[in-house]
Amino acid sequence: MKKLTVIAGLLAIAGFTVAGCANKETVKPEQNSPAAQTTQAQPSQQAPAVAAQAQQTAEKTIAEIQKELLMIHFDFNKYNIRPDAKTVLEGDAKVLNENPNVKVKVAGYCDDRGSVEYNLALGEKRAQAAKDYLVTLGVSGDRLSTISYGKSDPIDAQNNEKAWAMNRRAELHIAQ
Amino acid sequence: MKKSILTAAAIIASLFILRNAAAMMYIDINAPTITRLPIAVTMPVAGPGSNLNDVELLSTVISNALDASGYFAVMNPSMFIEKKAGLLMGQFNLSDWTDIGAEGLVKMAYNVQGRNAVVQMYLYDVVQGKSLLSKQYTGSIGDVRYIGNSIANDIIDAFTGHPGLAGSKIAFVSKRTGTEEIDTMDLDGSNMVQLTYNKTINISPVWSPDGSRLLFTSYMHQNPDLYMFNLLNGILTTVSHRHGLNISPSFSPDGSEIAVSLSFRGSPEIYLIDPRGRIIRQLTNTSGINVSPSFSPDGKKLAFVSNRAGGPQIYTMNADGSDVQRITFTGDYNASCSWSPNGKRIVFSGLSKGGTYDIYTMAPDGSELVRLTEDQGDNTSPRWSPDGYYIIFVSSRDGHHQLYVMNANGSNQHRIIATDYNMSSPSWSSRINFKITIK
């Protein structure tokens, strides 16, 4: 079941990514990386070709990074980070620390039962909790924003415990 | 007429209110169950120059409004056996109506005078052979729907002791187009109008007390921001677009202030703002969740939802944020509170022991808890009708989420309209100011 969750999560993120960026974009080289500094320092005729070559080998596409950012899940009516979610966020933090120019919107979601308004607040709290935990793992808070979708965007629209558990989540969306 | 229910309340009312001869209560809206009263709405007798479409529309509007009230079984005209007959008592046979089971009878004359439609309406109790109401309605020719609603409201008043709400509107969230958009409709489910078209997420519509404005939260600019739609001039304004949540708005009773939950400082807290979005004061200050403020009708207090004790529970506070009192103690999940227009009850949706969400009401101090739905799927988002006699809510009892109305005591639960898409977050307007003059 856990495996299923992860696969569905990947599919959902992949789906988002395709919808979110129709043009395949690449992440700009890190400002403080040697390649970037070289490019900026030597505006020679040959530099662009060299830089492009360096980009191709060193950079991942946004879609590739997005795929590595996994979602976490929450207990009913809760916004504390579960132990299994901590492990996932540690992986996410590693990805974000390896790609320091990537900015992320942390999106909180709820299962589709109960109050629309309370669930919106709960989703916001979930997004904030995920953001706060990423910050403790060394990701700069400046790179992380939050948004709540409440119960508006379930992964699984069915009415059962499995679907509800799947829908109580926080996703990391790379911000354009 | 079936044995008329003459309650103590009706007797007392009749002592103080000198109504027409029909002071007795035919339909007791406080009864635990309500039997729909069979009523015949006849086609109006049309005078010279009448547009027959308007004449038919008048009859249809009245029939639909009476049906939607939940108090009447509107009879199918194919059952009518009356041949040519007059409008006045003595000019028609009561037995033509009692023989087919009618108890109430509506007869009308429709005439055109210049640019006006003039409708003379007669309401009869055919069982007792009594005239209940005779009244003339005048409006411009294009206002047939308004005239019909006014007539229906008077008929409901004659039988129940309080006027109907035909002419008020329901705003709600519709997934008809796939995304959540704000729609409005009449009480009988007709006249659906789509207000938002932004294909994002639009939620929590709330009417201003006078029905001229609608607040709602929309993601049209990639954040849940608060907007106001002016229905008189069609202008949409941004009320609050602070970072984070701008959700669960509620107008003060005089429409001059808005209570709303904002999270720009971190946690979702309740603030009082003006219609231009400027903060008047912050009312809650916890590190948790505070949402769904609802004013008491005197504007002195608010009910709201907070998780300061763990899960969502309902609290009241003064309008300055002082004197916070928890008022729900049963169950782990109580939310979506709304204060009744007469100030005496608060309605909310709570998670029942059996695992379903149900509608409850209680006194503002938390006493006299009454459960209104049971074994009928999930029941959420309750709101009062503007007169406080009804509660509109969302239920999944027929499969997907649809809108239902019940009387304030939980009786007479019925679906407004059956659709094949989800409907949610209803809000019920006051009666729109009719353009017609009623003599």
List keywords for this structure.
heterodimer; A: 176 residues; disordered N terminus; B: mainly beta; Rossmann fold; Neuraminidase; 7-stranded mixed sheet; 4 helices; 31 strands; globular
Q: What does the secondary structure layout of this molecule look like, with pairings?
A:
The complex is a heterodimer of chains A (176) and B (439).
Chain A: H1 2-20, H2 34-41, H3 47-58, H4 62-68, E1 72-73, H5 83-98, E2 104-109, H6 116-136, E3 144-150, H7 161-167, E4 169-174
Parallel strand pairs in A: 2-3
Antiparallel strand pairs in A: 1-4, 2-4
Helix pairs in contact in A: 1-4, 2-3, 5-6
Chain B: H1 8-16, E1 37-41, E2 45-46, H2 52-69, E3 72-74, H3 94-98, E4 104-113, E5 116-125, E6 130-140, H4 144-160, E7 169-174, E8 181-186, E9 193-194, E10 202-207, E11 213-218, E12 225-230, E13 236-240, E14 246-251, E15 258-262, E16 269-273, E17 279-282, E18 290-295, E19 301-306, E20 313-318, E21 325-326, E22 334-339, E23 346-351, E24 357-362, E25 370-371, E26 379-384, E27 390-395, E28 402-407, E29 414-415, E30 423-428, E31 437-438
Parallel strand pairs in B: 1-3, 1-4, 2-4
Antiparallel strand pairs in B: 4-5, 5-6, 6-31, 7-8, 7-30, 8-9, 10-11, 11-12, 12-13, 14-15, 15-16, 16-17, 18-19, 19-20, 20-21, 22-23, 23-24, 24-25, 26-27, 27-28, 28-29
Helix pairs in contact in B: 2-4
Please give a structural write-up.
The complex is a heterodimer of chains A (176) and B (439). Chain A is of the alpha+beta class. Chain A is built from 7 helices and 4 strands. Chain A has one domain: 2-Layer Sandwich (60s Ribosomal Protein L30, Chain: A), CATH 3.30.1330. The relative contact order of chain A is 0.17. Chain B starts with 7 loop residues before the first helix and ends with a strand. Mean pLDDT of chain B is 91; it is low at 1-23 and 434-439. Chain B is mainly beta and 439 residues long. Chain B has 2 domains: 8-160, TolB, N-terminal domain (Rossmann fold, 3-Layer(aba) Sandwich), CATH 3.40.50.10070; 169-438, Neuraminidase, CATH 2.120.10. In chain B, 11% of the residues lie in helices and 38% in strands. In chain B, a hairpin with a 5-residue loop joins strand 18 (290-295) and strand 19. Chain B has helices at 8-16, 52-69, 94-98, 144-160, and strands at residues 37-41, 45-46, 72-74, 104-113, 116-125, 130-140, 169-174, 181-186, 193-194, 202-207, 213-218, 225-230, 236-240, 246-251, 258-262, 269-273, 279-282, 290-295, 301-306, 313-318, 325-326, 334-339, 346-351, 357-362, 370-371, 379-384, 390-395, 402-407, 414-415, 423-428, 437-438. At the A-B interface, helix 6 and strand 3 of A face strand 18 of B.
